[in-house]
Amino acid sequence: MRLASIRHDGTEVPALVDARRGVVRVADLVPGFSGDALSILVDGRWAELEKLAADAPDRVFADRASVEFGAPYRHPRLIWGIGLNYVDHAADLSEQVPDEPASFVKGDHTVIGPGEPIPVPPQSSRTTAEAEVALVIGRHCRNVSEADALEYVAGVVAVLDQTAEDILERNPRFLTRSKNFPGFFSFGPEIVPLAELPDLAELEVSTVLNGQEHRTNTVARMRYSPAFLVSFHSAVMPLQPGDILSTGTPGAAHIRPGDTAECRIPGVGVLSNPVVRG
């Protein structure tokens, strides 16, 4: 079952999503539950809740189309982003894929969820949206091997990662600033456990703008695989449950107020956000 947050009585509450039965609030499985989806990851309770949901009556489930999804959680401890990870995307930009992952960190003030507006900041005349698949860490992870790395991943989620590209073009040292405006990290609607994905390498990630596919590629075309990225970054610092590692984009689309940006990943989900003036 997938982990998500849904809007209920003016707040966002954690929920599980079953492909057949629909959506159930965690509070309907554990009366009095007051945490968020991040606390479920931190406390290692996802598997326990899946068992409770499997035994729950159908009446506690709502049809997926009847609920409104939010960001799975609002305050991840850490968001790692990876630049120029698709070989083809680097070629588009006349760039070479770096000899090591080109990573950066984003703050939780950038987080938004499905359907929330992406503000184009007044400091930028060229902001881009970049569809990505992100890895959600499931347990403490430090100095792990590439062979074992995916054992530490709870699941994957669709992402739209924004960049003030004109700021970055002025100087590559401006990367952190160009990536950290409010609304520059949308993720959701659901965290999909790896067990639901037969082959991570075959996932197809598409950046879509106003309903038109802008660029599509598969995880297999990454220079640095998801397992390598987890292993590499776990050697830099400890990774903790709920940390997010966004793996790079097949292509960035220039967005303007009035546009709608989407990340589409068959088998994972569709993430859509309108674009507004900041």
TrEMBL record:
<keyword id="KW-0479">Metal-binding</keyword>
<comment type="similarity">
    <text>Belongs to the FAH family.</text>
</comment>
<dbReference type="Pfam" id="PF01557">
    <property type="entry name" value="FAA_hydrolase"/>
</dbReference>
<dbReference type="InterPro" id="IPR036663">
    <property type="entry name" value="Fumarylacetoacetase_C_sf"/>
</dbReference>
<dbReference type="InterPro" id="IPR011234">
    <property type="entry name" value="Fumarylacetoacetase-like_C"/>
</dbReference>
<dbReference type="GO" id="GO:0046872">
    <property type="term" value="F:metal ion binding"/>
</dbReference>
<dbReference type="GO" id="GO:0003824">
    <property type="term" value="F:catalytic activity"/>
</dbReference>
<feature type="domain" description="Fumarylacetoacetase-like C-terminal">
    <location>
        <begin position="79"/>
        <end position="276"/>
    </location>
</feature>
<dbReference type="InterPro" id="IPR051121">
    <property type="entry name" value="FAH"/>
</dbReference>
<dbReference type="GO" id="GO:0044281">
    <property type="term" value="P:small molecule metabolic process"/>
</dbReference>
<protein>
    <submittedName>
        <fullName>2-keto-4-pentenoate hydratase/2-oxohepta-3-ene-1,7-dioic acid hydratase in catechol pathway</fullName>
    </submittedName>
</protein>
